[in-house]
Amino acid sequence: MSELIDLAWSNECAYVWSAEDWLKLRTEHRIIGELIGCLPKLPRQEVLLGLPLLLMPEEVSLMIEKNIARLVDYPSIRKQPSESFKKIFQEHRDKLYKEQEVCLRDERRKQVTLMMDKIIEGKKRKTLGVSTSKKKLRKQEVDVDTHAAMMKINIDRDVLLNEEMAKLPKLEQSDALVQTHTAYPWTADVEVKNSEWKYPSTPEEVVRYKVYKDLWEKEFYITSGEKFGGDFLAYPGDPIMFHSQMVITCRDRTEEIPISELIAHSRVGCHVRKTQVFATLSENGDNVKYQSFQWSESCIL
């Protein structure tokens, strides 16, 4: 049995903060949710969003029922950090700083190594008193005698490389990149508390959840249908690659639908090239029934 995915419970909403969990939910379980966070490299736009992933209540109920995930709370995150925790955090920052310093020096060493031939030539010119100015180098050609003298000068590449590396300034801790964690990095060290999930609790919520579950079991990808005036949108494949085919609106079996509302839903579905579907439960409440509508324009003379 695979490990349960943790759904973070906060302010009456469930979130996924881990990129690995987000990918697993999408690819293995067809759980889409809605990304609501800003991208670190593109913070001032809202076309492409990032973690956290906000889940619909129906998605949470399904994952708990199917034993895919659990709803958890982290009380320790809301408390003032202790001195021992501050020490752990500082050690983590120091470790990241040292790793960045090593990476920076390795990258600088590669850059200096690639420039060693030019550096050596410049050292030889300086030793012979030949101008090293770029403008003068374009006009001034090295004569045969000077070139021969330069060839006789022996410079140890390794020693020169070490000298050049010693000139490089040390990375200041204030200049180091600060890693901003999306998922909480010390989850194992904090108190994890299972949260109680009460959805669905009303007849309307029961209808929505059973419709969502039925569509999911029919292998549709489901997202919120709010932008098209429905409850859900049903996709034949991943929404990244497919358009939704149906706008699903959930209704109670005994509820009457005004003709004006039916026409409005059908016209919206026609305009966005989707089938408008009304979903309700059977008499015993065990099965889901669907009725599709399409707007057909007519011309009356």
Rg, Cα atoms, Å: 32 Å
Number of strands: 11
Give the averaged pLDDT, no decimals.
86
User: What is CATH's topology name of the largest domain?
Assistant: Trna Endonuclease, Chain: A, domain 1
| Total number of domains | 3
Largest sheet: 6 strands, mixed
pLDDT < 50 stretches: none
Give the H and E element order: EEHEEHEHHHHHEHEEEHEE
Note the overall shape.
elongated
- Counted by DSSP, the helix tally is 9
Identify the strand order in the major beta sheet: 3-4-2-1-5-6
Termini separation: 67 Å
Could you give the topology of this structure?
Layout: E1 5-10, E2 13-16, H1 19-29, E3 34-37, E4 50-54, H2 57-65, E5 69-73, H3 83-114, H4 116-128, H5 134-139, H6 144-152, H7 157-167, E6 193-194, H8 203-217, E7 221-224, E8 232-235, E9 246-250, H9 259-271, E10 275-281, E11 288-293
Parallel strand pairs: 1-5, 9-10
Antiparallel strand pairs: 1-2, 2-4, 3-4, 5-6, 7-8, 8-9, 10-11
